[in-house]
Write a structure and sequence with these properties.
The chain contains eight helices and no strands. It is mainly α and about 130 residues long. The termini are far apart.
Length: about 130
């Protein structure tokens, strides 16, 4: 399998999983993994904390757009833990301006999938020592 085919295959799996939606139970697992609270997740999903809380209580399946953001968030956090060693250290980093992100605060960028891609790209550069 060529690199391009593998990349396309992985992207297609990601899209298909997002279209199926992820459960509130899985979101709870992501919350634990990221050590973030409901306010953080509500900001990422661009909904109120009250609505987010209701989704969790109703054990709702999140829609494709919400699921895509949540899955991408989990992927970014996997990179964050790899780069920083601890989720808590990554959580501190996302609150500060980042040189490689044009002095933007990573957490603010993470409200869109494109922003999460930028943050993940910065983490990859940090991991491989490409800080210039």
């Amino acid at each position: 399998m060529t690199a391009a085919r593998k990349f396309h295959s992985n992207d297609m799996l990601f899209v298909m999983k997002a279209k199926q939606g992820i459960s509130a139970q899985k979101v709870g697992e992501i919350m634990e993994k990221t050590e973030q609270n409901k306010t953080f997740f509500a900001e990422i999903l661009e909904i109120s904390v009250k609505t987010f809380d209701r989704y969790l209580k109703e054990n709702r399946i999140f829609n494709a757009s919400e699921s895509e953001k949540l899955m991408k968030l989990e992927e970014v956090y996997d990179w964050g833990k790899t780069v920083f060693g601890y989720v808590s250290d990554f959580n501190r980093w996302i609150e500060k301006e980042s040189y490689g992100l044009d002095y933007q605060i990573p957490r603010k960028l993470m409200q869109t999938v494109s922003g999460m891609n930028l943050v993940q790209g910065e983490l990859v550069r940090i991991a491989y020592g490409d800080l210039a």
